[in-house]
């Protein structure tokens, strides 16, 4: 058997050696570029004509596959000849139509003459409705036209700022003629929509010099609530890996300062334990330290800040696009040194039972911190920021029934335990709103485990212990 196998192998080698090498077919040569004569420009009307002077060294023939124009004469002898090119029909499209004919002379390369018939004067919209955000500012509307354009708007909350023609042009097939059909841009200045729940609309009128006129609705949306992200970090002074994760959170706060709200939740046996930490560990199924939970949808575990920082900022951006805020808070707070009171109004887009939560946080707490990395050092005088000191509304928050496009008032009164806050000048409150959810949010940020914690954080707000916040909107 071994000998027969060896013989078969040798036979195969011999066969391979005798088989001629098959070369792949060469790539076909591209067609040579045609020799171009001058382009013939016709107006859009039927019967429009133009002439071309031809000087041939020998007999010639005109050839064309296009049937919408004619060339006369179609052939001739050596010498000068005037060719007449005539459009057989009107061009009813606003775009030019382009064809060509070729002059062939025996022994010479054919010469191609492009024929371009301009389009009918007209106006073409890029959409059936234009939309704008609810914020004050300038919105741009684009249309296609081949004529002088004027624009008007029928509402006092908007006015035409500018009309610019030729913001985008195209070359036709001859490579030298610019299409008359060009993009025009109309700039409108809009006032802020004062209604935070309903959009409003007006009519944009567009007219070209030849008389064509179109009216298109422009809808200004209601103002979107400004969306922030709640980023919980479960940590402890004895946790040697926690300074690394703290750095990731600080990086994210620097990268998204207006949207990223970090909260440090210290373990019960930490030197600075957070209020209600055992219940929070159970609610978020914390199995080890450090751990992160973002917007009550994403489980974030520790890793190098180069990895976790973009994870956190990605979750912030994802919330803005996939979890836009349904709620916003206007509130006023008062702190006496021993008690905190907050009275507020919750603006809601949907009729849902919401829960309002209030944490009291403190920055600048000096306490020891273990670290296993010299790159992220700890020490005896480590500065701890964003430390949750009090659960002013308990673990579950307070129930507030939201309306469809409505408002609901809420109030919080809380007696701060003596000594709980070291320096009230460094303390502030975080208000966040949640709603129930029985599904895992389908996000797409890498290095994240999306979980169902029974709720989703809809929005987050920070307020001084003695201060006021108003509704905020996306720009």
The amount of beta strand, in percent, is: 35-45%
Q: Give the end-to-end Cα distance, rounded to a whole number of Å.
A: 82 Å
Q: Which shape, going by the Cα principal axes?
A: elongated
Taking Cα atoms only, what radius of gyration do you get, to the nearest Å? 37 Å
* Mean pLDDT score: 93
**Helical residue percent band:** 10-25%
Biggest β-sheet strands, sense, barrel? 6 strands, mixed
Counting helices, strands and paired strands, the structural category is mainly beta
Q: Quick one: CATH superfamily of the largest domain?
A: Immunoglobulins
- In total, the number of strands is 33
Query: Under the CATH scheme, which class of the largest domain?
Result: Mainly Beta
Low-confidence stretches: 1-19
* CATH architect. name of the largest domain: Sandwich
User: Helical stretch count?
Assistant: 4
CATH topology of the largest domain: Immunoglobulin-like
Protein name: Omp28-related outer membrane protein
InterPro entries: BACON, Ig-like_fold, Omp28, Thioredoxin-like_sf, Thioredoxin_domain
Organism: Candidatus Cryptobacteroides merdipullorum
Domain Thioredoxin: 230-266
